[in-house]
Design a protein that fits this description.
single chain; alpha/beta; 7-stranded mixed sheet
């Protein structure tokens, strides 16, 4: 694809003008703007879902069409509705508490702490915590669990305020928040300010190398402003006086990284061999050169075509297809493919905050999971495919009438 002129400013890390398209997913509504039935006839706002790659620092990024305030102040995502995510959080807490000898004198701060899904496990160990969560409705759930939570966005000014109050984080956590930050430099600078001299930062985010290799185009949506390789995130953290000393590759969200960072000049942790190993693998995969990024758009088109082929074939055969889940990633995929109720009758979700609403853009209705047992569809399209094993186990009863599961990524395939 030839370079195009970008009219919305430069790279959010280094300021270089953005000219190279990583993938163009067309026009899409904000992925978490679920509609009430009486909103169907109101004008819906759609924004370009076009992703660029910076030719200088190679940060993959979206334009900022809507402020974080508009996206996150009243949020429909509650982490505690996924059993596997709770197990992931509990295992993490056990691991870091032991590794870094956290105790009642330690201070743990989580940014974007959601409904307390993770901090509750530190509380169980009598380790002092503070959550920072911009969504008032979600923070209220955490507070009801007894987890101290501040309702605010995190950045350098916020970090300096906490420091003036005597707060320094021995462990500073951010799970799936780094990608959601439009002002990346302000956020990472805030991490440095709040981190105790010998403190540890851990951050989890979807790994760009896995997104690329498995064509996970649906992990792209307007709330995700940036997409990170280890190479790029190392560069960003180094610019703010932070060094990544360890990295883990996780299965969560279709393949994530968990990075461990410390102050460059004051940290005490040795550099793990895993950092150099992954860095070299990313270089071998082409993530250190611009040309390595520019074939993704064509792969995304193939993913779209295989899903549409499957749905149209099912319709011609008189088969019914329903969805499972109402995740943000599903909304990206369905809007990119132009899929509506003509091809997918409805979807279901365990989250009662989404039930009774409609998916943005496509207006597919969201029901409670029990509806599947009533209508007995021929196929269930699993939209949160990263949780497919957990979901297929929950829905094992659907095999009784011959129902099959469809997984849309990297290309649509059936699981009997």
């Amino acid at each position: 694809m030839p370079p195009i002129t970008h009219a919305h400013g430069g790279c959010r890390f280094c300021g270089t003008p953005l000219e190279h398209v990583f993938v163009d997913l067309g026009q899409s509504p904000l992925a978490n703007t679920y509609l009430k039935p009486d909103q169907v006839n109101q004008d819906e706002r759609f924004f370009p879902l076009r992703v660029y790659v910076c030719e200088k620092c190679l940060l993959v990024q979206l334009e900022e069409w809507e402020s974080p305030d508009a996206i996150f102040s009243d949020y429909a995502y509650f982490s505690s509705y996924s059993e596997s995510w709770l197990r992931h959080a509990e295992a993490y807490v056990a691991s870091v508490a032991a590794r870094f000898e956290l105790n009642a004198r330690s201070r743990v701060v989580e940014i974007a702490s959601n409904d307390g899904y993770l901090l509750q496990y530190f509380v169980d160990r009598d380790i002092p915590v503070l959550g920072i969560e911009p969504a008032q409705n979600v923070a209220a759930v955490a507070r009801a669990k007894g987890i101290p939570t501040r309702v605010e966005f995190f950045g350098e000014a916020n970090a300096r305020k906490l420091r003036r109050e005597g707060m320094r984080a021995d462990l500073l956590i951010g799970n799936n928040v780094l990608a959601h930050v439009p002002n990346l430099n302000d956020f990472v600078s805030g991490l440095r300010v709040l981190l105790a001299d010998h403190g540890i930062i851990t951050m989890e985010f979807p790994h760009l190398m896995r997104l690329y290799a498995e064509c996970q185009l649906d992990t792209i949506y307007h709330e995700h402003f940036s997409y990170f390789s280890l190479l790029t995130v190392e560069r960003i953290f180094a610019a703010h006086g932070l060094t990544i000393f360890d990295v883990e590759e996780l299965s969560t969200h279709g393949g994530s990284l968990r990075i461990y960072a410390q102050h460059t000049n004051r940290g005490r942790q040795p550099i793990s061999a895993r950092v150099e190993s992954l860095r070299n693998r990313e270089i071998d995969a082409g993530f250190d050169t611009l040309s390595g990024y520019l074939a993704f758009d064509q792969r995304a088109q193939r993913t779209k075509q295989t899903l549409l082929d499957f749905l149209h074939a099912a319709k011609r055969a008189g088969k019914t297809v329903v969805g499972y889940g109402a995740p943000a990633k599903g909304n990206t995929l369905l809007n990119f493919c132009g899929i509506g109720t003509d091809l997918i009758a409805y979807t279901v979700d365990r989250n009662p905050h989404k039930q009774g609403r409609l998916l943005p853009g496509t207006h597919i209705p969201i029901y409670e999971p029990e509806r599947i047992g009533v209508t007995k569809p021929d196929y269930i399209l699993i939209l949160p495919w990263n949780l497919k094993n957990e979901i297929m186990a929950q829905l094992a009863f659907a095999r009784d009438w011959g129902c099959q599961f469809a997984i849309p990524i990297p290309e649509t395939h059936l699981v009997p």
